[in-house]
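Section handout 9: paired folding examples.
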Amino acid sequence: MFTQFKNIDTAFKHIKRFSIFLILACVTLSGFAIYKSFDLVKTMQSKVYILANGKAIEAFSSARKDNLPVEIRDHIKTFHHYFFTLDPDDKVIKINLGQALYLADESARKTADNLKEQGYYNNIISANISQEIEVDSISLDIDQYPYYFRCYATQTLIRSTSTINRKLVTQGYIRNVSRSDNNPHGFLIQRWETIENRDKTLKP
């Protein structure tokens, strides 16, 4: 009779241990499932789908600091494109300069005003000159704020009889501002100046 009770007690201990193990396994599995669910939700929230030409294109959101150099360089390229891309049309010149001045402070406006006073834009219109620019490279220092940059570009002046290429080097600083339709990157160029602008080649 005592042997039977002993066997029952042993069996109860085995069942108790198995139950504890089963509960721990369930808790562990549930915790892992909850963790993976939150991780999946977080991953899905970082994905953005853009509809273009009837096709869904996946995009990924990221912190601004991850793309800071890329965004700053694109902002600088955009500014230089609008400021230096000119055609012999007063309306085109005003539109492009207007777009450029949204991206920079009064230093760019002063440069534009000086060029206007010198008759630079009138000369472009009267001589039927088209002006284009290609940014070759941009050196950037993001270790200090505001961020210093130097832009190296090739400026092309197209006349009916010749094409002149100029080496253009500018420098300035970049600070953060609010994003807007006119300034989608949310940066502002300040203390901008041209430090070199000279002819490179002459093509007949």
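Moving on to protein 2 of 2.
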Amino acid sequence: MTTAGVLLAAGAGRRMGRPKALVDGWLAHAVDTLAGCDTVVVVLGARAEEARPLIGERTVRIVVAHDWHTGMGASLRAGLAALTDETRCLLTLVDLPDVGADVIQRVLAQPDTTAVLARAAYHGVPGHPVLLGRGHWPGVVASATGDRGARDYLRPHAPTLVECGDLATGRDVDTAQPSGDRSHPTARQPGTD
């Protein structure tokens, strides 16, 4: 049984004003949180050639979602298509700067099976990361369209919620402050993607 960490970092970050993969330190931080996975796949898209060097010397498999502009679904499909013999994958997003390795490890502690379906929750609100056993991948790929990643698949399949509110807020950072100061972005509540 092996686990792939899949980091979705392909979007243009229109509300942010630049791709979130290019925000200072976010990409490296997100990759580092996945160190407990057997393999790490980073899905890039918008300005991929600028983002690639920000990964540094970390050992990852980089996938470019050439149709990234169609939404998160394209990134998710590209990430899952890049997996080979892994039995489960942990999906996370680049715009979760307060989610650390401790959250990842807690979610990864779920059963190591091809049927596992779990996701982090923050004070009862579902968020990211999401742990998908291989048995769920075809359904997730089929439902991942436009800006809808795994949401439509997860809703009726009721993943196990892994409470992580004591470790992080789980808020995805969506926009820069109105003043234009991009060092203090604003965040959305988990589960609002």
